[in-house]
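Customer escalation, tier 2.

The customer says the design service returned an amino acid string that "doesn't look like it belongs to this structure." They asked us to rerun it and document both sides in this ticket. The original structure tokens are below, unchanged.
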């Protein structure tokens, strides 16, 4: 997809059948609320949450897209290394997919949504995870998965739905982004098709700032590393984190957002 400054050629396919996908998130609350709102209120897909230590039955069943299901799960802690090391989490996913969907983690797209706050996860661990989870459907690892980072936190995506100038902003840390989100009184309930286009527009303009003119979600690893290196250099030189969320890459990869 081309990272154009205009989003007028982008469309959203609310009838896109995606089968079953898994989204792995860091938090216990905000990310679940965001994923549920996008995939149920905006897209009307089935939704199944698996929270830490137990499978929740707070399910949403769609009447219009019964063949599209998003399973949102988190690991036992917010440390990013648990994505590869938390066997309990993997066992739960394996069991759910095996019993309910007759599928395995090797045949289902997985998107790992995580925050890149420099006050938490170590750079080497984040880079190792990024180098392991390169593609939603094909990795040389026990399970599929592509790592999509929020700089500095998931609120960057939420703000990007409403603030068309977010690509110009930087934050000292996650708290600064969260404070702005609260200050502006943004609400997930106001996210819709138009705001989702605002979010991908912000992402594309941020990519332009890094001299990225286009990308392929199915071969995103080099772009992912370029963004990671740019963010590291910016933080090391200025102490600020340029705001960008890569959640929109998931929607492009699934064919929900496409170029006309």
């Amino acid at each position: 997809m081309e990272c154009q400054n205009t989003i007028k050629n982008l469309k959203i396919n609310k009838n896109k059948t995606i089968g079953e996908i898994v989204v792995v998130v860091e938090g216990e609350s905000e990310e679940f609320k965001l994923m549920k709102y996008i995939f149920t209120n905006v897209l009307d897909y089935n939704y199944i949450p698996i929270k830490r230590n137990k499978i929740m039955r707070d399910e949403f069943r769609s009447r219009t897209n019964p063949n599209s299901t998003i399973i949102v799960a988190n690991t036992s802690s917010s440390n990013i290394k648990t994505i590869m090391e938390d066997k309990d989490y993997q066992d739960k996913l394996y069991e759910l997919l095996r019993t309910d969907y007759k599928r395995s983690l090797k045949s289902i797209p997985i998107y790992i949504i995580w925050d890149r706050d420099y006050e938490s996860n170590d750079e080497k661990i984040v880079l190792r995870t990024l180098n392991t989870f390169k593609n939603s459907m094909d990795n040389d690892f026990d399970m599929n998965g592509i790592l999509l980072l929020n700089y500095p936190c998931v609120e960057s995506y939420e703000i990007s739905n409403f603030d068309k100038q977010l690509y110009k902003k930087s934050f000292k840390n996650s708290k600064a982004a969260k404070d702005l989100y609260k200050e502006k009184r943004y609400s997930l309930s106001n996210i819709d098709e138009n705001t989702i286009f605002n979010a991908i527009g912000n992402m594309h303009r941020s990519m332009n700032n890094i001299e990225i003119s286009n990308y392929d979600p199915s071969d995103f690893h080099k772009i992912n590393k370029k963004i990671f290196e740019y963010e590291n250099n910016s933080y090391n030189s200025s102490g600020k984190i340029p705001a960008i969320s890569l959640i929109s890459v998931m929607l492009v990869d699934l064919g929900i957002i496409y170029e006309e």
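Tier 2 assessment: The sequence is consistent with the input. The longest helix spans residues 221-238. Residues 24 and 65 are 22 Å apart (CA to CA). Sent an explanation to the customer and offered a walkthrough call.
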